[in-house]
Fold each of these.
Amino acid sequence: MMKIALFGKNISENAVPYVQELIETLYSMQSEVSIYQPFYEILGTRITFPPDFTLFSTQAEIEQRVDFLFSIGGDGTFLEAVGLVGNSGIPVAGINIGHLGFLSGISKDLIIPALNALQKGEYHLEKRSLLLLETPQSLFAPVNYALNEVTVYKQNVMSLLTIKTWINGHFLNAYWADGLIIATPTGSTAYSLSCTGPILTPDSENFLITPIASHNLTVRPIVVRDNSIIRIAVEAKSENFLVSLDSRIESADQTTELHIRKAPFQINLLRLKDKNFFQTIREKLNWGLDNRN
């Protein structure tokens, strides 16, 4: 018997039938289902629920009590699910009812085949590294980690930042730019990719430092080992700047130094056996398609 937790945010009316199909299929498999309470409240009367499900709101309520957590939505929802799962080790599977969906690898049209494969054990777990952000002000605590990236960017749209960066105590550069992205291999296909950063394979054991709209055109992204400690100090004419961990944002002032390193735990990303990273990027980025007609 599978024990499944369901996590999501607001969904469109077009997505409701797929959520209904997911719940009905899980119960036909005699699975135990627990639903994230805010998600349950959002679904409301749009979904018909069986009588014997439970609700949860915190990591502690599902830790060591569920086999998998399904994130229902796009990659933004998946990133929030990672914050909820934390260091529990619960494997996370993304059901994509959003758009691009690098992380949410199960198509909404393939829910039933995916659940059948899961029940048969036809899946594997990919270990994904996270970034840990440490600051004197304890920004984002206690969820001060990110699966995709830590980003520093300007608050005043009219001026650039000076972003001084050190690697393991060695000065790297003073970036004069709109911002700077520190990305994991997972995050290399996210914001960093749109800023011309390279794609890293999930097992590459590297971090990626990518400037955002650098004023110096010779400055390019750089790849460093993921055992590096990255220190950042920011100078801004507006005195404040913005820091984001994935989709979460906070304001900081120039007394705030950022220390970024690899988190002491990893996330288990569930993949079906017929899927792999290279297949995903081919599909999502339309590689190999002849669009000349």
Amino acid sequence: MITLTPRPEARAARRRWAPPPSTRFDWTMTVLCLVFVGGVYLDAWAHTHGFSDKTFFTPWHAILYSTYVVVALFLLATMTRNVARGADWRRALPPGYGLCMVGVGLWVVGGPTDLLWHQVMGIEASFDALLSPPHLVLTVGLGLIFTGPLRAAWRRAVPPRGLVEQLPMLLSLSYLLSLLTFAVYFAHPLAYLWAKASRAPAPHETGQAELGCVGTLLTAVFFMGVILIALRRQPLPVGAVTVIVGLNSVGMGFLYGLGDGAYPFPQVAGFVVGCLIADGLLAVLRPGPQRPLAAHLFSIGTPIAITGCYFVSLLMTGGIWWSVHLWTGTALTTGGVGWLLSYLALSPIPSDERWRP
């Protein structure tokens, strides 16, 4: 009996093969991640409204884990097909998506651990759920999965240009921002509308204004940090801020709303209008590492525009109980936050940088 074995050169050639970048794969992952984000926010909505605080087995968890299964099966199917075509399993996904499988694996560990944690430690309530160890594992996994299209854009030899080509990357950044704001919902200005006149605290209550101010600054840190991550690598198209921050604000408004459950349309609209103004600054200033002054001005103006329009929306719909000194000063201080972050974005990337995500 004669056994034919591939030559060493043939085996080496098969191992060297790797799937090329794929726009279709980018868009498929972007859409699937959008559905996954929706599952995460729907489950969080159920928690914030008291529908999921008694048991692990709820319709909301079923929807959440179903969206995870869809994403995981798509990645596994692609990986299996490419391995069958000769790719090494470590490079069986298009460039930039390898860490997505690490995120899938973290959910394989974190999901059962979360169930066991609930059985032993009880069901978390309020924002305790955000900080339980199993949920932190799941959060890291989400971050690795959601940023797949972002890493894929960074790995391309020719970076995508224009709003349409960069849209998977921009949506990936919006998913990342949504994960960050979800993790600190108790401080987000769209969560409790701290400054709204109808939410003025009783005389014996203290710290409401301070928490609202800090929450507004923290929100500015998150969205400016995410925007500048992308801006450091390549110019952003007009519309990028609205895609990244505007979509996130729509989700945050759905997730928490007002105390009576109403959707905060005016305040979400204020965020979106501020994003449109920021995109105007993007068009005029054309910021980037090669235009440091423009980048600094953009980083100052963007958070001021977004938070300023948010406070104006409160003024137009019931008023603000904060003093004019506090709310105008808070909006202007977010500009200082953006200005400081812009120095990180402008730090040069070494030409011989070895690590690529």
Amino acid sequence: MNIAAQIKSYPAKQMDPSKKKALAFSALEKSKPLTELAQENNVSRKFIYKQKGQAVTAINDSFSPVGEKEKVLFYLPVTLVWLRQLIICLVFHCRANHRGIQKLLLDSFDHSISLGSIHNIIDDAKIKAKSINAKQDLKNIKLAAQDEMFHYNKPVLTGIDIRSLYCYLLSPEQDRDFDTWGTHLLDLEEQGLDPERFFGDAACSIKAASNYVYPKVPYDIDNFHIIKDLMDMRRYFRNCLKTAITNRITLQEKVDKAILTKKMTNYNNQLEVANMKEEEVKYLSQSIDVLVSWMQHDILNMPGLEPESRYELFDFVLYELDQLAKCHPHRIQSVCTTLKNQKQFLLAFTEVLNNKFEIIADEFVYPLEKIWEMCALQRCQHSSNTYAIRSLPLQDYFDTDFDEVEDAVLKALDTTERTSSMVENLHSRLKPYFYLRREIGFGYLGLLQFYLNHTPFQRSERSERQGKTPTEILSGKAHPHWLEMLGYQRFKKTA
């Protein structure tokens, strides 16, 4: 039998889907008997029953309730390029290690991939990220914070723009000396870094390198560390007082139980010593509580008194702590030494505020003292009764200019820094990426730096940061998605 005869003798096999659908509809409508439909289309009744059954099944599936767990949301074309994107996202979004990625692809996608392939994918992204990091213009960084963190006892040098949170330095090193810091700062200077001020701790190498490369840029010592030392000292003496009270109570109970016994005299002597110790520690603790409170809330607080008063109060607190150190040098003496050495640097922010307030005073033609009074008013919560009462004299003085002067003072306070807390915030974001990795060199931190700088903030107290990346805030320009910047095309669902 020739091919033409075979095709003619099997019409059911040669029937296209549209004709099968029409035949199924005719069977469902029952417009004609099945025998007549079979004869017209030259097929068997069994074939018609089969098409009818498929149509009924499709209709039932379409109208039957489907659980949310079984519903197909969308279909995804999984390609090797898409898997490369997924691997990079797992490394940074989920902080996954290479073996975890390997198991995920095998369990969820039934796809086997070697550790070497994962390494090569990350390595290719490192090269592109390094190039993008080097091309970023850093001229818009005005307030820069620098510090060091450690990973397996090896230093990691960090630097961040306080306003945009752009990380301009993230480098693992063998040492943290003057030469290492100086080399990085010289490279950053060529990239355009020229801030108005540097912020950091009292580390000699950072400060010396900053003053060498940027001799005209002030280096302010961070207030956070000295406040932490003061609070630790206060907590220590509070605990000493609790211990002294507990010891005195215990001895008092022993004395009460030892009345008219041989041990009573011994316990009385111990109780007398315990009472004296309690009074001594109580005096130290209460004095330190007051002095630390003044230093934290009156001297080093941004809203507050004018510079002259702060310097006088600083000297008074330092003198009182020196007197206490003569009685109990432990912890107090080291804090006094730090305060003496860092006085000018810790209070440098008051001079910055004073310069800004002089501009405000000239603009609105008011005495500088009144602008500082407005600054001190900002210590009160705006919705509180204290603010309402203390603002009355200034409202009478400034009259219709009160709101404008207050807005100018608030802007000056908002644009002035006294701590490098943002670099500490950066360290807290970096630590989860270091936790499962012993090796962070060979370009990994460069890729991590690129990721942090080009990933939008999910939330922020500052509205200007919400939904934007540090690079967008720094440059004022939008940029493509970070995956697209690495050369990938993102998957998007069809409408």
Amino acid sequence: MGARTTRGLGTAGFARRLLLSEYFILYLTVGYFAVMAVFFPELASPRNLSNQLSNVWPLLAVAVGQTFVIIIGGIDLSQGAIMGFVSVLGAVIVTTAVDPALFNGSPIWGLLISEQGGLLAGAPYGVVVAVTLMLAVGTLIGLVNGSLIAHLKMPPFMVTLIGLMLFSSTAIWLTQSQNLVNLPPEFTQLGAGDLVSVYFGEKVEATIKRRDILPFVTNPMLIALALAVAAQLILSRTVLGRYIYAVGANARAAEVSGVPVKRVVMAVFMFSGFCAAVAAVIYAARLQGGRPTIGSGSALLDIIGATVIGGTSLAGGKGKVTWTFVGVVFFVLLSNTLNSMGLSAFYIDVVRGGIILAAAALDALRTRLLAREGVG
């Protein structure tokens, strides 16, 4: 009886340590991949891995911004709308040709776009201007969101929900729900380019493609990882990072302690808008068009889901970019396997919603267990 009890306690203790470990989602991701690869061998093929990684990078970019917002106890529902809106703005600048049959009813027809293209179509620095404008507008929208929340004490949910409705509708209105295509190759390379042809030549690239293998080191990968590394350094190595955690843990106590809470909130939402714009650049370049609906549908579910699954607490005060990265990988892997099962979009969304709910419940359980043990 004693041996059984000891083994039972040992198993329970191991499960408890595993549950409380900050690497729990990493273990879960590796285990899930190993099991699913048995049933779907193509899951581990180089081409499939490369394709799935291409889905990771834009989602990681926007989820990094959502991580900051959730750490301070907020939420940003406007990120998807920002992505669609700024992708349209960027395309308006550099598109090289526009179909009049599709856009002659648009309010910007003849003013910002014409049959010959956008404002800077074919200009040497057109792509630089377009990307700069996209990043600036995304950051500005985040500033407006943050200012309303910080100075007027409006709930983040309400402010960003209004932003979601406003900017998604504006993007659709400006384009009449059409996609602005014919983007120059200098722009599309940001979403599909790789280092193979640059450093090893076109012959090596052709060989890789002939063997049905896609390159792993791509421009979106470098952009997203650079953003993620910079964000993690901000959280872990700067005064601003300590302020962000303090605001999320207890905003009132942080303010009493001298933390500039209003400026921190504004900075976080500005960064969230900036990250959404970075993701918009990657998505628009990859899809070769400015799409007003680029962040609609289940995109918001993906963004928040990946962040929460990674371990960032909806209660605020806890989260890491490294956790978000693992959450993004798990969420993309989950979507890939669900699609491989041949499930309808409805059932896929139901399963993903259930996973997010389970992640939120798990976070509440972990918080309670840690509180009992007097940890964190």
